[in-house]
Design brief:
Layout: E1 8-11, H1 21-34, H2 41-45, H3 52-61, H4 68-86, H5 94-103, E2 107-111, H6 116-124, E3 133-135, H7 148-157, E4 164-168, H8 171-180, E5 183-186, E6 200-201, H9 210-233
Helix pairs in contact: 1-4, 3-4
Length: 237
Amino acid sequence: MSHPLPAAVLWDMDGTLVDTEPHWMAAEGPLVESFGGTWSHEKALQLVGLALEDSARVLQSAGVRMSAPAIVELLTDRVLASLAESGVPFRPGARELLRALREAGVKTALVTMSYRRMADRIIDLIDFDAFDVVVTGDDANRPKPFPDPYLKAAELLGVDIRDTVAIEDSPNGIRSAVAAGGAVLGIPLMVSLVGTGAHRILPTLDGVTPDALADLLVEHRARAAARTGAIKTGGTA
């Protein structure tokens, strides 16, 4: 028997919907080096899933003598220019699942720490009406890993966050979505998601259906109810 579909599915963008992380990394290294600093792939991985302002402060500590807002604007410009030249690579199965959700009447939100002009560029490349709501890094009072971005998306959609599924690729994003209270599907790309609290981890979205997300939500609710019951009876679950 199929379960009711989620009230909404909340999507991260960079690394989850589209594989833009290499473009960000390609912009960071030359910027640091232009100020005489050194950068590495390992250092770049530490920025995956961080709010842009937080990433900018890390780059400042690596020697970039610019204000955090100026760093964010420069990196965004360079990433957009790179995407315009090479195209935007959607992650396997992402666009197909997004379309299937829309055809099934499920509400969707994009919840990204990239700035709105970056999100708008990505959305423009989708050949159907993909999102009801877009929450970006310049909207949230507190960025991921705080729950605020996901809670804001649920509020704007008019749904209970507990009736939603979030899809994320980074530890910070997973922690944000878990703290918000919905079911969370992890799709790792650059870094491992083991131990982050994701309720299910899959290598890609290839073959994932709306019904599969409905099943995940039901499983998450059952585990949450079991934990609540254990707490009330003084046991563990």
